[in-house]
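Entry 12.
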Amino acid sequence: MPWPHRQRGCGWLVRQDVSLIFEVVRNKLAAFFLKEKARGRLARRADTRRMADFCLATIQGAMLMGKVQRSSQPVEAAAREAVAHVKSYLVKSHP
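Predicted 3D structure (tokens):
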């Protein structure tokens, strides 16, 4: 009986591995945002899963653009914008 990756192609295994890596990173980001939300540092309206997906997709897309353009500028710009977006969910502390 042939190996499963031979039936689906080796690309399937690579996609599966990359998908698992993204899931681990997404879960770690979501857990971080959830802890911050529980501590009252993020607004109640913050969707921690969507925030994690946004951060992961933004950085991955920026890294691809940076590789294609052979420039760190897309990564730096995307990181700045991602930080600004995440900061929009911060709860202002009252002294």
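Annotation: The chain has a mean pLDDT of 91. The chain has one domain: 7-87.
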